[in-house]
Amino acid sequence: MSTPNSYAAPGGSGRFKRLLLALLAWAVALVIFFPILWMVLTGFKTETAAIADPSFIFSPTLESYQAVQARSGYARFALNSVAVAFGSTALALLIAIPSAYAMAFLPTRRTKGTLLWMLSTKMLPPVGVLVPIYLIFRDVGLLDTRTGLILVYTLMNLPIVVWMLYTFFKDMPRDILEAGRMDGASTLQEVVYLLLPLTLPGIASTGLLSVILSWNEAFWSLNLTSSKAAPLTAYIASFSSPEGLFWAKLSAASTMAIAPILILGWMTQKQMVRGLTFGAVK
Amino acid sequence: MTRTRASGRRVGGFRALSLQAPAVTLLLLWMLIPLGMTVWFSFQRYNLLMPGMTGFAGFENYEYLLTDPALWSAMGTTLLLVGWVLAITVVGGTLLAVLFQQPFLGRGVARVLAISPFFVMPTVSALVWKNMMMHPSSGVLAWLSNQFGLPAIDWFSSLPLTSIIIIVAWQWLPFALLILLTALQSLDEDQVEAARMDGAGPVAIFFYITLPHLKRAISVVIMIEMIFLLTIFAEIFVTTSGGPGLATTNLAYLIYIRALLDFDVGIASAGGVVAIILANIVAIFLVRMVAKNLDD
Questions:
Q1: I need a surface site. Which of A30, A173, B143, B276 has the fewest CB within 10 A?
Q2: Do residue B120 and residue A236 have CB atoms under 8 angstroms apart?
Q3: ipTM score of complex
Q4: Cα separation of B288 and A45, whole Å?
């Protein structure tokens, strides 16, 4: 019996080489993942076990999870993160869908220029505009509010959202919209009854990317919030004070903070690449 | 017929304009107002602690900033941070992408594990590394060096910038890997096979086929990383607060110190202008590359 295999050299040495490569790849993957694994494990230890000699063997406890929930109002920070991530994503989609629709289906000479200009706003380093945004927010009372963060994140992600939606819309067959128009559908009906249902997977992955980016954003959240509207990024940062090392609690809080996004990230790898490179890598 | 089409186009143009108006207007405001204010403030005497001192400052703020040793130290730190992280993530990411492109048992799971750090929020990565990994007595790295009979390294006091570089590289290596792996999937297998038939070894294939194929993806990775790495903030904020001394103060952190700790709006704004100029030099190339891709 022969197994045709065009990739490996025939014979035992090829198989051995491939086994070595597999082991190497797995070793690398585990080393890279180790800090996350270690954090998850530490979250189930007692504070004493957390700073003892590293060990995989311990009796797991939910102590730290309970402590985090009870002590610091973890739920409030988590709620802020959810509100800000989903609020800004919903707002960004609402503003971006008409814009991407126009770019994909009613292109003009200026469309390409507009698209590129939108991307270029993404290149503005946040620290370059920190001072004015901070002062404006202070003067209009948006400092430490969810509304303020939602606004900033919406604008921060808008270029990527428009861009991704545009690429998804452009892939859609035009005949269907054309047929709808023939039947007398208005633009709004066209968008609501034809475009949105047909491009729902694309819209969903665009939304997920926006949620991930907002959830993990840590420059604006650290600078524009202090307590009331602070999301999880800022809450975790409060563990950096040297007054006491609560590794197990830090780990429990961190695990809860990253788990949902890690899972979303695993699910949307492909779309991430499309969005993060503005389609330059497919 | 022609007339309706012509008018239809005009109506279409108007419709296109009005549909895009919200997004364009908001982004325009978001860009122009803060940008304008930053430039304006950078020419003003404006310190929140000294409300009496106001007025046009000319280039005073720039003069102060450019003669401030802290700026040059911060520039150096920024450069080192960006340079090292880029080197590690691009070289490492390329090698790992080739490695993970090989078929092996459980490849999907291994890939997912390897790209995970990219989805971890920066404050979590920084604190996990600072405490559980790099702590001089209870950290995993200290324990490891003890196992080999080596003295434990006090990472953040003896090698502060290196520590930050390690953390940031750990976050961005998965990004490079993810992008380059995607790019590798469009590599023509027949070409590789043909080269192999002609007797090319794996090293030759890597340098003459794989690397040229990845060239564009690599430059995209470099540019996107540069834009983010130029203004790394949270990782420094939660670990070293820019110290010891100015050892880990990059440009972004220096501006933060001047603005929100010293309350000197004028000088912080001048710093902001410098940061914007730096980022724009990179951005021009990136936008140009994306534009070229748009024509294909």
A1: A173
A2: no
A3: 0.83
A4: 51
Residues comprising chain B, all counted? 296
> Is A17 buried (19+), middle (13-18) or exposed (0-12) by CB count in 10 A?
middle
> Considering CB atoms only, which of B104, B115, B273 is closest to A21?
B104
Q: How many CB atoms lie within 10 A of CB B51?
A: 8
Q: Sort B17 into a burial class: Cβ within 10 Å, 0-12 / 13-18 / 19+.
A: middle
> Six-digit token pair at B251?
């440009």
Q: How far apart are CA B26 and CA A98, in angstroms?
A: 14
The alpha carbon of B260 is separated from its chain's Cα centroid by a whole number of angstroms, namely 23
Q: Are A121 and B30 within 8 A, CB to CB?
A: yes
Using a CB-CB cut-off of 8 Å, the residues of chain B touching A162 are: 23
For chain B, what percentages of helix, strand and coil (3-state, to nearest 5) are there? 75, 0, 20
Instruction: Round to whole Å and give the CA distance between B139 and B145.
Output: 10
Peptide bond into B174 cis (omega under 30): no
Decide if pLDDT at B88 tops 70.
Answer: yes
pLDDT category, B12, cuts 50, 70, 90? Answer: low
Q: How far is CA B76 from CA B163, B251, B256, in A?
A: 16, 9, 17
Instruction: Give whole-number Cα distances, A243 to A15, A238, A240, in Å.
Output: 55, 11, 9
Is B289's Cβ below 8 Å from some Cβ in A? yes
How buried is residue B286: exposed, middle or buried, by Cβ count under 10 Å (0-12/13-18/19+)? buried
On chain A, the residues whose CB falls within 8 A of the CB of B199 are: none
**pLDDT band, residue B293 (cuts 50/70/90):** low
Whether residue A240 and residue B130 make contact (CB cut-off 8 A), yes or no, is yes
Residue B121, Ramachandran bin (φ over 0: left; ψ between -120 and 50: alpha; else beta): beta
The per-residue pLDDT for range A152-194, each reduced to its tens digit, is 999 999 988 998 888 888 888 777 777 877 887 777 787 788 8
Q: Count Cβ neighbours within 10 Å for each residue of B232-266 and write b for 16 or more, e otherwise.
A: bbbbbbbbbebeeebbbbbbbbbbbbbbeeeebbb
Set of chain A residues whose Cβ sits within 8 Å of the Cβ of B138: 51-52, 247
Q: Are A35 and B170 an interchain contact pair (Cβ–Cβ within 8 Å)?
A: yes
Whole-structure pTM value: 0.84
CB pairs under 8 A between A and B: 300
Q: Is A52 helix (H, G, I), strand (E, B) or coil?
A: coil
Q: Is B46 within 8 Å of B266 (Cβ atoms)?
A: yes
By CB neighbour count within 10 A (0-12 exposed, 13-18 middle, 19+ buried), where does B147 fall? exposed
What whole-number distance in Å separates Cα of residue A112 and Cα of residue B193? 39
A194 DSSP assignment: I
